[in-house]
């Protein structure tokens, strides 16, 4: 019985934590972003900023709130 339960947990982890399997060829280049996606990304970056709380957790807040509370934006390397 325990063995079947372990496989059920593995199945759950694979399905819900890792997500669906990719069916694309791994060496195939991904598609480029559409103009609408670029506009949306620019709007989100203009509206929100990443900040770090006292416990070290990084999260998003709108810029007005971050400026009003004096939160320090987090510079994350590799982020556009």
Question: Quick summary of this structure?
Answer:
This protein has 80 residues and is an alpha+beta fold.
Strand order of the largest sheet: 1-2
Task: Compute the number of helices.
Answer: 3
Distance between the termini: 49 Å
Provide the structure class.
alpha+beta
Helix and strand sequence: HHEEH
Low-confidence stretches: none
Defining traits:
3 helices, alpha+beta, two-stranded antiparallel ribbon, single chain, 80 residues
How would you sum up this structure, described in words?
This protein has 80 residues and is an alpha+beta fold. 45% of the residues lie in helices and 12% in strands. It has a domain at 40-80. The chain has helices at residues 2-17, 35-47, 63-69, and strands at 48-52, 58-62. The chain has a two-stranded antiparallel ribbon. The mean pLDDT is 81.
How is the secondary structure organized here?
Layout: H1 2-17, H2 35-47, E1 48-52, E2 58-62, H3 63-69
Antiparallel strand pairs: 1-2
